[in-house]
Amino acid sequence: AVPTLAETGYAGAPSRSWYGLFTPAGTPKPIVDKLAREVAAIFADATFRERHLTARSLVSAINTPDEFAAEIRRDRALAQQVVKAAGLEPQ
Q: pTM value?
């Protein structure tokens, strides 16, 4: 079994959940931008937010495709640091 981070001595590792919309690599930027605008418009609707976010205790953090990509890069770098600091080996 793989030990938990706390069991390896690295308690308190930051953790969060998120959802994102992805497109295939190479999708033209105008299409990505249009999708981003449409999703932002949906999330701007109060009825949608109440029914699908607030009712599930979720918080919306709409950002641009470039901001989302940067966030994923930061999460990946952090995960790599945590794995290295905990002395874990891929299995």
A: 0.69
